[in-house]
């Protein structure tokens, strides 16, 4: 059996009739932008998250950028971001004219390490963006304590964490603003690009509605220099079909995660994901760690199991930030993590048989790795858990 890393068509196959009907409804309505579907989706998603306002925009990257701009963050400012994240978190900051400042991840959660925040704060710092990477909630209490002490806004990047809970409360209910992506592969995915910001702050919501539509909510009256970033009616209608299933699909992800965690526990040289005591994760990705990651991925591929790396290059080492940011060695934890992480197949549409196949392949690949003398020669420290090799002070 082969197990693809992701099967993007599976969600549509399950919901085909409802999605077709929703799309048809929009096509025949004659309203394609800023119409009833957007209005209904915004109300439904705000209710799901437990916030007063939801403003839907063109993408997750735009959601982050516009949330920052709604808070008047721009040129001359700094925004603290995780060193280990998808580059969109950084690019959204750069797009406002502000400078992203990297903070190293925690070794176990891979999320921003709150203990490293204070040293990154300068007089120019305006906000912190914790990312709930892989669907695992970051430690918001610790982040907010630092933010309060220094008068900073907290804008969450929840692009991978729809429905996740922190200490029992949904992500997005305790900070200034929270950005989501509806990219097709996300836990709540459209059939194209999309994003949203949720907030309890009336003024922030109003600014966002202006920013996404040329600075205007009344035709041809332009209050601020906005842009064009709107979720279209077709995508909103598709998301309205999927939203009622989000909790069930997240539960299906959690069931896959439980099987991986129990059936692959204790494999030598493999670190399984850590779930923090405050976290109800939504398993956007299931990420393991191995000092021999690339070999492990090849061995899994040879057994028909697709994997991906999230992410192979930390933003500060990508060409986009070369020259403007400290390079190699400046974020050693993030750099080491990016060399060692490997994402196993994960999603609501993996069958029991698929999971059986992944578990068997991982066991076999690890066994083969242990038996291969060339492996040992080429990587003498391999086999140690990554935490054991990390300097205690790092
Ligand atoms: C997907 C993602 C984004 C960007 O969302 P888009 O809709 O693709 O623009 C931002 N941050 C993180 C962590 C993401 O995973």
TrEMBL record:
The protein's UniProt keywords, in alphabetical order, are: Aminotransferase, Pyridoxal phosphate, Transferase
Q: Which GO terms describe its biological process?
A: polysaccharide biosynthetic process
Q: Which SUPFAM superfamilies match?
A: PLP-dependent transferases (SSF53383)
Q: What sections of the sequence does the record tag as coiled-coil?
A: none
List, as start-end ranges, the regions of compositional bias called Basic and acidic residues: 365-379
What Enzyme Commission number does this protein have? 2.6.1.90
Instruction: Please give the CDD domains that the UniProt record associates with this protein.
Output: AHBA_syn
Q: Which GO terms describe its molecular function?
A: pyridoxal phosphate binding; transaminase activity
Query: Where is the region Disordered?
Result: 365-394
Question: Gene3D superfamilies in the record, alphabetically?
Answer: Aspartate Aminotransferase, domain 1, Type I PLP-dependent aspartate aminotransferase-like (Major domain)
Q: Which top EC class is given?
A: transferase
Q: Which domain of life does the UniProt lineage start with?
A: Bacteria
Tell me its family: Belongs to the DegT/DnrJ/EryC1 family.
Extract the PANTHER family matched here. 3-OXO-GLUCOSE-6-PHOSPHATE:GLUTAMATE AMINOTRANSFERASE, TRANSAMINASE
What name has this protein been given in UniProt? dTDP-3-amino-3,6-dideoxy-alpha-D-galactopyranose transaminase
Protein species of origin: Actinoalloteichus hoggarensis
Q: Quick one: which gene encodes this? A: fdtB2
């Amino acid at each position: 059996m082969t197990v693809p890393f992701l099967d993007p068509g599976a969600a549509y196959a399950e919901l085909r009739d409802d999605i077709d009907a929703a799309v048809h409804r929009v096509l025949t309505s004659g309203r394609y932008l800023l119409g009833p579907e957007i209005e209904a989706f915004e109300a439904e998603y705000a209710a799901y998250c437990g916030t007063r306002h939801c403003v839907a925009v063109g993408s997750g990257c735009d959601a982050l950028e516009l949330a920052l701009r709604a808070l008047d963050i721009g040129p001359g400012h700094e925004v603290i971001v995780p060193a280990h994240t998808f580059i969109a978190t950084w690019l959204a900051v750069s797009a406002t004219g502000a400078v992203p400042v990297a903070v190293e991840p925690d070794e176990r959660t891979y999320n921003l390490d709150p203990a490293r925040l204070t040293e990154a704060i300068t007089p120019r710092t305006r906000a912190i963006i914790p990312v709930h990477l892989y669907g695992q909630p970051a430690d918001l209490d610790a982040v907010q304590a630092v933010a309060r002490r220094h008068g900073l806004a907290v804008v969450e990047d929840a692009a991978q964490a729809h429905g996740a809970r922190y200490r029992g409360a949904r992500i997005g209910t305790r900070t200034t603003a929270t950005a989501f992506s509806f990219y097709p592969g996300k836990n709540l995915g459209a059939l194209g690009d999309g994003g949203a910001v949720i907030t309890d702050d009336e003024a922030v919501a109003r600014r966002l509605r202006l920013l996404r539509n040329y600075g205007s909510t009344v035709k041809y009256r332009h209050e601020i220099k906005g842009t064009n970033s709107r979720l279209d009616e077709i995508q909103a209608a598709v998301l309205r079909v999927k939203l009622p299933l989000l909790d069930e699909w997240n539960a299906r992800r959690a069931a896959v995660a439980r099987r991986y965690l129990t059936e692959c526990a204790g494999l030598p040289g493999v670190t399984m994901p850590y779930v923090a005591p405050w976290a109800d994760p939504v398993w956007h990705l299931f990420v393991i760690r191995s000092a021999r990651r690339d070999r492990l991925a090849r061995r899994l591929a040879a057994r028909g199991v697709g994997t991906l790396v999230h992410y192979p290059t930390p933003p500060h080492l990508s060409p986009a930030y070369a020259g403007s940011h400290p390079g190699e060695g400046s974020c050693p934890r993030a750099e080491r993590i990016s060399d060692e992480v490997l994402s196993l197949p994960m999603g609501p549409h993996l069958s029991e048989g698929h999971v059986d196949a992944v578990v068997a392949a991982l066991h076999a690949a690890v066994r083969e790795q242990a038996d291969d003398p060339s492996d040992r020669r080429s990587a003498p420290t391999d086999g140690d858990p990554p935490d054991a090799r990390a300097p205690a002070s790092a």
